[in-house]
Amino acid sequence: MHAADTKAAAGEQQNCDICCGEDGETILHDATVYCIDCEQYLCDQAARLHGRTKTTREHAVVPMEDAEFRKARPQPSCPFHGMPIEYLCLEDDCLVCVKCLPCPIHNGHRCKAIPEALADENRMISADLIQEGRGKIDLVSRALRVAEETIDGVDERQRLVKGQVNSYVDELEAVLQQQRNELLKRVDETTTSKLKILSAQAEALRCILESLVNGVDHLERHDTNEARDLLMKRAFRKSVENTHLSMEPDALNDLEFVAREETQEMLGSLGEVAESGPCAFNTTAGGPGVLAYQMQAQKGMKFTVSARSRTSLPVTCGGERVSIKVDKNLNPEWQVEDVGNGTYEVEYRLNSDRLRDERSFRLFVRLNSKDIQGSPFTVPVRKDYNYVVDRSLQGIGLVSGGIIDGDYIFVALYSQNQIVKVRRDTGTQEQRIPVNGQPYGMCVDGHLLYVCLYNTHYVGVYNKETGAQERMLGGPGVFMNPVGLAQEGEELFITEHVAHRLQVVRKDDGTPIRRLEDATLRSPFGLLLDEQHIYISSNTGNHVKVYSKGTLNLVHTVGESGGQFLQSPISLAQEDDILFVGCNGNNLVQLYRKGTFEALGTIHNVNQPYGACTHENFLYLCCMGVSAVTVLRPSFLDPSPHARKGPTVPFAPTGAGTLEGIAGGGGIGEAGVLGLGGVEFEDGTENGSDLERRRGGRDALLRGEGDGMVRAGSRGETGGRAAVRGHAGDGMVPALNAGPADHDLVDFGDGDY
Fold it and tell me: Is pLDDT at 656 greater than 80 in this prediction?
């Protein structure tokens, strides 16, 4: 006999078989009903959910006081054939009788006799499984309580929202009724006014008409009464000579109602009933961290989760649980920042040693323990730093520096003494700011633009919106050819190219604060700050010096050991833990790991990178040799919406060379690669048909499909010549020397070179 039946037979109060607490112990909820099909006692709360669940809603549930609930259940029989249940259909996971086996529904399915299936099931019920089941009771019970609370909350929310809708419509009806009364009142007032005016006019006309009729009648007969005759004639004459008489109505019959279309449009939809809570399957994730995992990124990868509702509307508040999980036992270190507006910034880091043999992994992103749209993401593992050309901002001028400011990049033009404001995406030039000297390094602070003016020895301060000069800092005797500039707090850091030093001054008035003078720092140029260090490129020293920002002591010199050699480094930029060093001497950008300063690779054939800056993983290079800003992106990122189709500028080990054509209108032409051979396109194919090699020297013929500037590069052993053919355009075709080779450039005068 069931223990529960024993307690019930003894007249004891029976507890619910479903409810239990978070610690696994039974909560003493009194049972009120009994499910004959489940053979379980249920409390009121469990009974409500029992009746709502699809699999149990048709069960026979009887009150406990009903004696029928203790009667033995009859042997189950097939509902279709009335035969005893004897088999388990393994395919459909249901009990069947002997007549069900040949039926079309179960014909050919694997079946087992109930005793055999029961024996198999008993073998699979282990002590561990029973313990796991007991533990799961707690989880399911909590989920049940949450479901019940949510059901009650939905019911309450239904009443609340209905009340809000009714209140809103009642208010609108009250406003509409008030408007109707006011409009009807206005109709009555206007009508009364018109009738009053018209009635007075009609009465005046009636009097005049009577005077005229009587006068004409009087004149047609002789009146012997002279006094009456005089009176009648005077009245007639005055009526005829009355010039103030209005023959048209003094008030028009023009009353009408003019409805406001905007009100009708508004009333066409008073609002909508929306589910504003976050919904996992509509929530999205975007950013580098879901596109690829860069193994070299020491700080890990980032992406953004944007919560959306069931109706795909953006969720505008935070407070949800966002979590991630990675397969292959990679055990990520991760953190989530709740921005508070429905978006969540996620950063995660994986163990690089465990990633070395992996080509990809699956990233599960969950909102409130449910997978979001696209989860799990298949994330490829990138094991190198590969940068490709995304687009080129052309037609700017001889660029000597650049700084990112929001959607814009301010570009210095040293030969024109100007700063040009260019849109980062399209390259549209929106403003030119004249400055008092040759501009190089720049920084932005609020609405102010600080500019190093090389030949006049000043740092100019300009309003970046209007271009107006605000003030000038320094001057001859204070600065000597300022070229590199950075700002932190109230301080400006300035490198002086000819004075071979760094000065720190106040940004408001230029008052000197401290100075760095190092005999080994020759011709300092580029300048970069991070949390702890100052990075300065030594143009003629062929290295980058790293100093402590607090003490100005030398910490490290990059490029003088370990086979790392730099040729005229001038520009510096950083992205996370990567240090970019642009070299004018060999037209390349060298990549280093900040902190350890290990060489990560090289971006070749960037023509005179006088300025460099980064924004959202993109690298912007101000290339004086082509009078353009070349924008590069990591190869694992998708091209930007304004990317131009064309060849890559590959990340390559030392020794490789590339040749690229750049269209004057901003496009990238087809290009040949000299040194390793072939043309590398973004789809991975190669084409060497336009490239001819020779052992004693190399000649290259390159056709640029653009409409303007095309630059040629050649790498040879004993010398060689590169001939470039480009369509007519700006006409400016500089030759790039990427090795010990000669270059001849012939202008045919018709757009061909």
Answer: no
Question: Which ranges of 359-487 does DSSP label H, i.e. alpha helix?
Answer: none
Buried (b) or exposed (e) across 467-483, using 16+ Cβ within 10 A?
Answer: beeeebbbeeebbebbb
Q: Is 742 a residue whose pLDDT tops 90?
A: no
Mention every residue, 6+ apart, whose C-beta is less than 8 A from residue 41. 4, 14, 15, 16, 17, 31, 33, 34, 64
Which backbone phi and psi does 338 adopt, to 5 degrees?
-80, 110
**Cα dihedral across residues 220, 222, 223, 229: positive or negative:** positive
User: What gap in Å lies between CA 374 and CA 177, rounded to an integer?
Assistant: 51
Question: Do strands 377-382 and 293-294 pair parallel, antiparallel, or not at all (unpaired)?
Answer: parallel
Write down the residue that tokens 């590398």 correspond to: 680
Given a contact cutoff of 8 angstroms between Cβ atoms, the answer to whether 464 and 448 are in contact is yes
- Distance between CA atoms of residues 90 and 725, nearest Å: 74
Task: Compare 42 and 488 and report the one with higher pLDDT.
Answer: 488
Peptide bond into 376 cis (omega under 30): yes
| Helix (H/G/I), strand (E/B), else coil: 376 | coil
Q: Give all strands of the β-sheet with 33-35 in edge-to-edge order.
A: 40-42, 33-35, 61-63
Instruction: Please state, as a whole number, how many other Cβ atoms lie within 10 Å of the Cβ of residue 389.
Output: 25
H helix or E strand, kind and range, residue 171: helix 127-219
Helix or strand holding residue 371 (H, E)? strand 370-371
pLDDT score at 20: 57
Q: What tens digit of pLDDT does each residue of 171-203 get? A: 888 988 998 999 899 899 989 998 998 898 888
What phi, psi does 646 have (nearest 5°)?
Answer: 160, -165
> What's the gap between Cα 359 and its chain centre?
27
What tens digit of pLDDT does each residue of 289-316 get? 898 888 766 678 899 999 998 888 888 8
Q: For the segment 558-596, what is each residue's pLDDT rounded down to a tens digit?
A: 886 544 578 999 999 998 778 999 999 899 999 988 888
**Which domains can be identified in the chain, with CATH numbers?**
3-132 (3.30.160.60), 133-256 (no CATH), 280-382 (2.60.40.10), 387-643 (2.120.10.30), 650-753 (no CATH)
Mean per-residue pLDDT, 55-79: 70
Q: What are phi and psi of 576, to 5 degrees?
A: 55, -115
Q: How far apart are CA 50 and CA 39, in angstroms?
A: 13
